[in-house]
Amino acid sequence: MRPFKPTAGAVSMASRLAGASTPLDARIIKNGIDPATYRYKLHFNHVISSGRVARAREVFDQMPEKDIVSFNRILSAYSRSGNVASAEDLFRMADHRNVRTWTIMMSILAADGRGSDAVSLFRDMLREGEAPDRVAVSTVLNVPGCDVLSLHPFVTKLGFGTSTVVCNTLLDAYCKQGLIAAARGVFLEMPERDTVTYNAMMMGCSKEGLHREALQLFSAMRRAGLYASQFTFSSMLTVATGMVDLHLGRQIHGLFVRATSAHDVFVNNALLDFYSKCDCLDDLKHLFLEMPERDNVSYNVMISAYAWNRCAGMVLQLFRKMQKIGFDRRTLPYASLLSVAGSLPHIGIGKQIHAQLVVLGLTSEYLVGNALIDMYSKCCMLDTAKIIFVKKREKTSISWTAMLTGCVQNGQHEEALELFCDMRRIGLRPDRATCSSIMKASSGLAMIEIGRQLHSYFTKSGHMSSVFSGSALLDMYGKCGCLDEALRTFDEMPEKNSITWNAVISAYSHYGQAKNAIRMFESMIDCGLYPDSVTFLSVLAACSHSGLAEECMKYFDLMKYYYSISPWKEHYSCVIDTLGRAGYFDKVQKVLDEMPFEDDPIIWSSILHSCRIHGNKDLAIMAAKKLFIMTPTDATPYVILSNIYAKDGNWEEAARVKKIMRDRGVRKESGKSWVEIKRKVYTFSSNDQTNPMIADIKAELERLYKEMDKLGYEPDTSCALHLVDDELKLESLKYHSERLAIAFALINTPPGTPIRIMKNLSTCLDCHAAIKMISKIVDRNIIVRDSRRFHHFKDGVCCCGDYW
């Protein structure tokens, strides 16, 4: 502020502003301060303190001398009122800015979801020579999605490497981005640690599934004599939730009650979440009713818990109760309710919530928009989700990930890959959720080359240090038929959680290696990790693929009675499939009677396939009739029942079933196979004539058939059950889609290269026998992923042991 020599006019003006009866402070004149500016500032402080931001701006604009303190106050007022545009205009017009000015503006941009702009502003501040203080550094590190790896050197260079406050923020930023190894490095190098330090590290470990390490940190914190805050208890409950350890959670609950008044709504909400994740609905309800204070989060957790347990009535009841209690309708947990509608899935509930959001004018809200995309995607209304995504004014990486994930969930894997490329083109940084979803797109297409490119990209971007990203990579290799690479990824992961173990058990399951899947399950238990529903589903599926009926029932009972995990319908489906394929139809009926769910097409399809294997014609007829009603447009039950009749020599009934199928307009799905060569996918159908190389493909097959004849190959004409002569039956078998794809790959890849084929239907018996021989003749690994599982052919043997 410039020294000012007061004049009579200035004194007169200041007196008029303040009122003629108010005497001037002699110190104003003595210190050479402009009286008008002084009075304006008093008036400005009064107006802005009363919350009249627009009037405060008018007074500020009229001030003869504008000081930086007043400037920062009005900038902060714009921040509190959410007036980002006015804040940006004011910031741009500033002749002078101090570190506080820059920090406030960074906070405004970050709160508006413009993290990249906030980080750019920080770099502008450094370029203009303004030295940041620890508040400015902490602010930029708190920006969601900031490139903390590149900001870390600035922190050290600016001399904040020993500041506990800044180091806590740096550590927390690493943890939030899943970079636990880097966070651990910061933690170990800190000269002093406080409760916040331990809380951030514990929460980071628990989020990454490193529950044992989080517990060790908690013990170290108590040994250091540091007090446990509400965030400490919340972190430890997250650990107990992740471990599904009810005993540990109850111990933490008791410790919380002894250490505090037990009235903290934040910790009580964490307890609610813990009991809900452990499926302890009675404890959950009891705690909820005893809570002296409940907020939006309390109801949110209850709603999510009842939704997970498929209690749609309770979900709606709680939501209506929130409305009656008087919670502001604009602050109700709409995003959670949309998530509930998607998880059920229940499009009716979803549309009702959407309608309320339209009435309230909340559809443009950041979280709500993302939740709408997620809900419509999960309810199989992908086109509606796309419309919402396109209309969304501001799209962050979370919005793109929601849309990308929706495409994956609906089988639109190519479109998901295109979205990922678009996301990168506009400069958005994918996070670990994006990484997980795009890996699923790659595995859905079984395009291993794209998967390897993604592996390279995410390694360079630092996401592979995350246990979740590593697990997604493992799962991708497993589903692309690269079991060796999946196992190598598993072995190389420095940290593993239950998701990692589930992925490797699932990989063994898809390959029919049930004993290895069970071995990994036992190793997981030995490591102190608790199996969840997904773990048991993979183990049961492995038993199903290998025909291990006794083991299947053993682990099914273990899940129910030892681990107290309520089976899903999918678990019952695996058990029924295993027992049926083993021929235990009386036990199948017993499981059906005990199952607390309505039977569905998947279960009856499994029973029908079992009847085909064992020739149980009576049960097959019953299963087929149920499927005719449940899935009237699916040709599979008609074809299987017709084939059962044909195999029994009852051609009249076989023809009658096919006539019913034709009369109802049901068409059999054509068998298709595809193969990836040099990053391009080639698709084949049975007896395909469209490929330009079809003559070469057929010539290669004829060459192989001659070699197969020498090895004693005899075509299985039962796989061509038609009322035609044997010559036409043999001809129809020769050019099945997977054989055309294999011949094409043999012509277009170097000797010794593994061949990976995808097929939309189950491989027939004759193709299975033929591919075994081809693998021996050409000395190649041939991996076929059909609609049920993987078949890895090598040296004339398949990994399934001829059981599928």
In words, what does this structure look like?
One of its GO terms (biological process) is RNA modification. One of its GO terms (molecular function) is zinc ion binding. There is one protein chain. A six-stranded mixed sheet has the order 2-1-3-4-5-6, covered by helices on one side. The chain has 44 helices and six strands. The longest helix is centred in the C-terminal third of the chain and has 17 residues, at 694-710. The protein starts with 7 loop residues before the first helix and ends in a 6-residue tail after the last strand. With 804 residues, it is mainly α. The radius of gyration is 33 Å and the shape is elongated.
